[in-house]
Design goal:
about 160 residues, alpha/beta, Nucleoside Triphosphate Pyrophosphohydrolase, 6-stranded mixed sheet, two-stranded antiparallel sheet, 5 helices, about 30% helix, globular
Length: about 160
């Protein structure tokens, strides 16, 4: 068996990436997708041959219409297979604090996103599925701690 034959037998995982963006009050920017019954952070799927960091920059430009500096990795979350979805790795990068001027320039692709909002931790818990809320809250903590965290299904791994 050649190396390429072996590589072809390896499992495939979905990869997603997004950014933790905050306002000057510490609230997190969440978006409401048009095709889902819950809110998310800005981001999306990583394309073939695309790095998660590059995907985050692309998704922010496509979803919000603004350029922000995408910084360090805050969270990597392994998500087990569920319903019709394959297992995957989800990454959250630090998008920093969005200025009022940048906020005024946010433009959503309405076919993809219904609306956006600055959200408190309680808002995040009420608008997102538990696993996603745990991931976002861990990213806020990672930023505050100057750390990067590894999660599984939104939970810290000891």
């Amino acid at each position: 068996m050649t190396a390429s034959d072996y590589t072809a037998t390896l499992p495939r995982k979905h990869m997603g990436a997004g950014a933790l963006l905050s306002d000057q009050f510490g609230r997190v920017l969440l978006v409401e997708p048009a095709d889902k019954p819950y809110w998310e952070i800005p981001g999306g799927s990583v394309g073939t041959g695309e790095s998660p960091h590059a995907a985050t920059i692309r998704e922010l430009r496509e979803e919000l219409g603004v350029l922000v500096r995408v910084g360090r990795l805050l969270v990597t979350d392994w998500v087990p297979p569920h319903q019709d979805a394959a297992e995957g790795l989800m990454m959250i990068y630090d998008g920093g604090v969005v200025t009022p001027d940048q906020t005024a320039r946010i433009r959503l692709p309405f076919a993809e996103l219904r609306q956006w909002a600055w959200c408190t931790q309680q808002d995040t818990i009420s608008l997102m599925p538990e696993m996603l809320a745990r991931r976002v809250i861990a990213a806020v903590r990672a930023r505050a701690d100057g750390a990067a965290y590894y999660l599984e299904n939104g939970y810290f791994v000891a």
